[in-house]
Design a protein that fits this description.
By secondary structure, this protein is of the alpha/beta class. Helix content is 34%, strand content 22%. It contains ten helices and twelve strands. The strands form two sheets. It has a seven-stranded mixed beta sheet with strand order 1-2-3-4-5-6-7. Strands 8-9-10-11-12 form a five-stranded mixed beta sheet.
Length: 318
Amino acid sequence: MNTPHARSTSSSPALRRLSEATWTWTHDSNDWGYSNAGLIASQGQAMLVDTQFTLDSTQQLLDAVEGVCPLDAVGSVVSTHQNGDHTWGNQLLPRAEIITSVASAAGTCHEMGPDQLTQLCWSTAEGKAAAYVVEHFGRFDFSGVTVVPPTRTFEGREEIRVGEVLVELIDLGAGHSAGDVAVHVPDAGVVYAGDALFSGGHMMVWSQSLSGCIRACQTLLDTRAEVFVPGHGTLLDRAGVAGIRDQLSVVADAAGSYAQRGVPLADAAHLIKAAYAGSWAHPERLFTQTAAAYAEAGIPGMPSSTWEMLEGMVSLTP
Ligand SMILES: [Zn+2]
């Protein structure tokens, strides 16, 4: 039987000021589930960018936010996408609008819920995929989580004022997820990118669109911002974002060429991991990048469900 690991849940998150009106909540971890968040506060109004995976970790974030502004000031939460590690604390801000893109909101129904994930962590299922879930998610306690869907959606771009600060919401389309959103604060030169950017770890592609991930990096660079808060990992500068874009492009080219030559997906994923894993965390996610490139090359039957992605990733683990 799988037993969730009794590991520490601490990853030393901290609220750090980026400019007069912007803060970031970042973790010292590239492990699954430790997502970054953002705070924009000005003149008695505030916007949160994403919540956390569990109620406890979101409460920890909100306690830190209260050091900047009263929680009543948080009138909106922007969900960068619908993965639980960015949204499962939404219920702790019941008076806030939950804003995301139309495509992101539409993806909600495909997400695994907290009960399902808990069941998986405690299931007696054998095999590498089940063990992977336990290893990476068994440390989190999802009790009490109710998934709160978005209350307001937008398409394209939308400008919102938070006090005196202009905030631009950018609909990045499908890439990491079925619909990703970035939050740009032009006066601060800051972009909260959600999981359109992973820093120090490989990109997870849930959407079957690796080209969408590459385009999203370019869209983020086109804001001319200097500071990028990724969904996971440490802050990035422009060179860091360009590096991620270029790495994804190299993988896309290699995978596209394997697809054209009729190399089976499993073989291509192994070859790509051997060539491009480098030192970034979670090289097994290269399976999802390869599978997305194969889907975009028109290869039918490519994995798309959470479980198929997991099975593919664990095939790349030792
Ligand atoms: Zn995430």
